[in-house]
């Protein structure tokens, strides 16, 4: 039996739009030091996020999905030591080819290490059996929206 060993490469670019302050916050400090106050977050704090993913840095650009994340400040240095995170991005019908497909990431978002380099654990739907990595440099920020550019490199 012959197997096709040629890997298929795929590169995606999209943008997370995060709001860190009420009343429309998409990220919050849920448990631990500074619970409910991101600027007071310290070691042991858990952070939850539910951010829209868009085609550009412009907050009104087409939404192509949502990312949900759980992060923890796992270093006694607090946020300076980074936030260990696991995130899942679910794409919607606006990106028809990937509708209802997901990609799951994990890694540490450490402030001095930009762009962040994140591991792709896998995916569902179109991204089943995908592996790779993502680079996530900060994008243009217009408060209250913080933008992160995701450059995803996959093989299947």
From TrEMBL:
Top-level taxonomic group: Eukaryota
InterPro entries in UniProt: Allene_oxi_cyc_Dirigent (IPR044859), Dirigent (IPR004265)
Residue spans crossing the bilayer: none
Subcellular localization, as worded in the UniProt entry: Secreted, Extracellular space, Apoplast
One Pfam assignment: Dirigent
Keyword Nuclease: no
Entry keyword annotation includes Secreted: yes
Entry keyword set: Apoplast, Secreted
A cellular-component GO term for this protein: apoplast
GO BP annotations, alphabetical order: phenylpropanoid biosynthetic process
PANTHER family: NUCLEOPORIN-RELATED (PTHR21495)
Sequence similarity: Belongs to the plant dirigent protein family.
Quaternary context: Homodimer.
Record function comment: Dirigent proteins impart stereoselectivity on the phenoxy radical-coupling reaction, yielding optically active lignans from two molecules of coniferyl alcohol in the biosynthesis of lignans, flavonolignans, and alkaloids and thus plays a central role in plant secondary metabolism.
Protein name as it appears in the record: Dirigent protein
Primary gene name: LOC112283855
